[in-house]
Design goal:
Low-confidence stretches: none
Distance between the termini: 38 Å
Mean pLDDT: 97
Helix content: under 10%
Shape: globular
Oligomer: single chain
């Protein structure tokens, strides 16, 4: 099983990019999908998650109201729509898929916010 992130790059403050994470080798609708990030000199932190069992979503306080996580089951893909980006959102964004039995992480997607 693997998950692969795409998107990101250099974005201006206030911008609204979307990053994607496509899963393979697993039954997508049986996994909770989540995004975490690791900013420069910071520890990895939770950003958002989408629970497969009931579709519930959870967000870190720092992104609540600005970021939206959603999945497209037909494409085995989860998205993170980021709006009104701030400089402090600069980070490597990691996707992970988790079930009761295993977890896998992607390689990360860099998002750099410029002023």
């Amino acid at each position: 099983a693997q998950v692969v992130e795409s998107g990101g790059g250099l974005v201006q403050a206030g911008g609204s990019p979307r990053i994607s994470c496509t899963a393979s080798g697993l039954t997508f609708n049986q996994y909770t999908m989540a995004w975490s990030r690791e900013g420069p000199g910071k520890e990895r932190e939770f950003v958002a998650s989408h629970v497969h069992k009931d579709g519930s979503t959870y967000y870190a306080d720092s992104v609540k109201g600005r970021f939206t996580i959603y999945r497209d089951i037909a494409k085995n893909t989860v998205y993170l729509q980021m709006n009104n980006l701030k400089l402090e959102d600069t980070a490597v964004y990691y996707c992970n898929a988790s079930s009761d039995y295993d977890t896998c992480w992607g390689q990360g997607a860099q998002v750099t916010v410029s002023s």
